[in-house]
Amino acid sequence: MGENKGWYQRQQSVPHFDGAGATQFVTFRLSDSLPKEVLERFEVELTDLKGNIEIERIRRIEKYLDLGVGSCILRETSCAAIVQDSLLYHDEKFFALLAWVVMPNHVHFLARFDEGQGLPVAIQSLKSFTAHRLKKLHPEMESIWQQGYFDRFMRNEDHFLRTRAYIQENPVKAKLVENAENFVWSSAHDPLR
Fold first, then answer.
1. Rounded to an integer, what distance in angstroms lies between the CA atom of residue 17 and that of residue 40?
2. Quick check: helix, strand or coil at residue 78?
3. How far apart are CA 96 and CA 112, in angstroms?
């Protein structure tokens, strides 16, 4: 399915880890969810910031995504179902799915990648399959997914638990529901997870 790369770097990004037994937090988003000018504004604002700039960049991006900017086609039942069903289909074939949420304009998931289950291959398969299906429902969209994805290696159990809670509480934080269990497109709603 794909070889594990170990530590690697994509273009000018921070280092990433793709290894057997690694648990990863992954985010990918719709192509129109985060305009280039917003990212550029964030970069200008972050130039004078002291402290961990990468963490602050991530916070700003997540807050912006939760505003529900862009087409938000994943708000539609048919579109959200395509993505959630694909995540569940990829479970155990490409990764062990531990938590997920399909938000109106982005997707978060937490998964363990075992030997031969490479993160880049899994993401390419997931995004390619869902883009093809979503494009049939939304031919007006030039592209479905923004290029690339965000991933973060889980350092320890506490990091894992905080990340899983973040994923499952994201619909509450974005004011889509009052209780995480009520959001259908999430592992919090799935009693088997």
1. 26
2. helix
3. 5
Residue 3: predicted pLDDT? 54
The domain segmentation of the chain, as residue ranges, is: 6-33+68-166
- Average pLDDT, integer, range 106-123: 90
Evaluate whether 137 touches 79 at the Cβ level (below 8 Å). yes
Cα distance between residue 131 and residue 21, in whole Å: 28
Domain 6-33+68-166 indexed as CATH 3.40.50.300: no
Give 145's DSSP letter: B
Residues in the chain: 193
pTM for this entry: 0.84
Rounded CA-CA distance 185/64 in Å is 20
Q: How confident is the model at residue 50 (pLDDT cuts 50, 70, 90)?
A: confident
65: tokens are 């995504």
- Provide the pLDDT for residue 20: 64
Residue ranges of alpha helices (H) inside 91-156 are 119-137
Residue 24, helix vs strand vs coil = strand
Structure tokens at 130: 């869902």
Which contiguous run of DSSP H or E holds residue 139?
none
